[in-house]
Amino acid sequence: MASKVPNLFGAQVFKQGYAVGVVVGKFHTKTLRVGFKRTLTHKKYGAKITRTTVLQVHDELNEADLGDVIIVKQSRKHSKTKAFELHDIAIKYPAADFLNKNPAFADAMEEINKKPTKKTQIEKQKQKQTKLE
């Protein structure tokens, strides 16, 4: 099935309804957020500009995980913002497999990746001060 898809690596534009992107979010079942990066050249200054397009993609079997490089194809609308579906997983991100096999590490990673709130920052400062005393 993947042999029919043109080689799009390096050219992140849509060709024949297909594109290659990286999974940047997985918040709901059967829905992925996929980022597509492209570089442009500024007309006046000639500087390289990086732009990112993020799309909602339908994943019927919940196969893809964060960090996977996937091939997306245009399809009928699945919802208001979802008009693409997963065609194939080009490169499986190894860390995602590891976290799926070891859920204890996944919980630890969620704890590490939490955004610190003001309250937690103040608590950390107090802990540092008590250690110094």
Characterization of this structure:
The protein is an alpha+beta fold and 133 residues long. The protein has one domain: Nucleic acid-binding proteins (OB fold (Dihydrolipoamide Acetyltransferase, E2P)). It is 26% helix and 37% strand. The protein is built from three helices and five strands; from the N terminus they run βββββααα. The chain has a five-stranded mixed beta barrel.
Compute the number of helices: 3
CATH architecture: Beta Barrel
Helix residue percentage: 25-40%
User: Could you name the CATH class?
Assistant: Mainly Beta
Strand content: 35-45%
User: Please, what is the CATH homologous superfamily?
Assistant: Nucleic acid-binding proteins
Poorly predicted tracts of residues: 1-11
Q: Please give the alpha-carbon distance between the first and last residues.
A: 65 Å
